[in-house]
Design a protein that fits this description.
There is one protein chain. The chain is mostly helical. The protein has 2 domains: 69 residues; 194 residues, no CATH class. It is 91% helix and 0% strand. α2 runs antiparallel to α6 and α3 crosses α4. It is rod-shaped and about 95 Å long.
């Protein structure tokens, strides 16, 4: 009987020890699984971030590579058109921004100067103010002694002159917009001719021989169209800006004639 109890006790201790060891091994396995999962998650995040940086770098490198592959002889003229067109566009935008003044404030100053100091004082106000509207007002006031009709004619005539100055440079931007895709298409034609020359020389249509010429053709067209699109956006913005300034000039000129007519009636 004692032997039976001893055997049962030993068997129970061995079973308990096995259970404890199994639980410890399960806990260690769970911890290792969590560590592996965390490591994989970190690695996945690093891999997700790495392509973004790689992609960001590769775009610049890709553009540079494609530019060289397109042929410097054709890509440089397209790039020159883009750079020169942007230079003219930026200069025009700066000029138009400076020309877009507060016309209502200027009209108020001119009217106040007429009431207090007469025409000469109004001329001084216009002379000391910037913008095309002030120049138009000054030219009109110079003809005040010749009557309101001459003032109006002077305002209209000088307004046309100022409009020409505002539109100065648009012709060059239009030229660069037209030249960019034209140069690209010319590179396309040259590339296709080179591809057909390769076919003729080999006496057979080989994709390897034709691919180079077609690639050059497509790249020059692509870069030419990109340059034209960029310049077209700037061109349209400048045209809208000019139209806005011209409308303000016309409204201000009408208001000036009303002020001069009122001044003549009172004096």
């Amino acid at each position: 009987m004692k032997k039976l109890f001893a055997f049962v006790a030993v068997f129970g201790m061995l079973s308990f020890g096995s259970t404890v060891n199994a639980q410890e091994e399960a806990a260690e396995a769970a911890e290792q699984t969590e560590e592996v999962a965390a490591t994989e998650e970190v690695a996945a995040n690093d891999e997700a971030a790495a392509p973004a940086a790689t992609e960001e770098v590769s775009i610049h490198k890709t553009l540079k590579t494609k530019f060289v592959e397109g042929g410097v002889g054709w890509m440089l003229p397209v790039l020159a058109c883009l750079v020169l067109g942007l230079a003219v566009s930026i200069e025009r935008i700066i000029y138009l921004t400076a020309a877009d003044t507060n016309n209502k404030k200027l009209l108020a100053k001119v009217e106040e100067a007429l009431e207090k100091g007469g025409v000469e004082e109004a001329k001084n106000v216009c002379r000391n103010s910037r913008g095309p509207v002030a120049s138009i007002f000054y030219q009109g006031l110079l003809r005040y002694d010749e009557g309101a009709e001459m003032v109006e004619k002077s305002v209209v005539s000088y307004g046309s002159v100022m409009m020409g100055q505002l539109e100065s440079g648009l012709t060059w931007i239009s030229l660069f917009i037209a030249l960019s895709p034209s140069l690209g298409f010319m590179g396309t034609v040259v590339g296709m001719i080179g591809a057909f020359d390769s076919i003729q020389a080999m006496g057979d249509i080989s994709p390897i021989a034709v691919a180079g010429g077609i690639k050059v053709a497509l790249l020059t067209t692509l870069f030419g169209l990109i340059a034209a699109v960029i310049l077209q956006v700037f061109y349209n913005y400048i045209v809208v800006k000019i139209d806005g300034i011209v409308n303000k000039m016309e409204d201000a000129s009408i208001s000036l004639m009303d002020i001069i007519t009122k001044y003549q009636r009172n004096h």
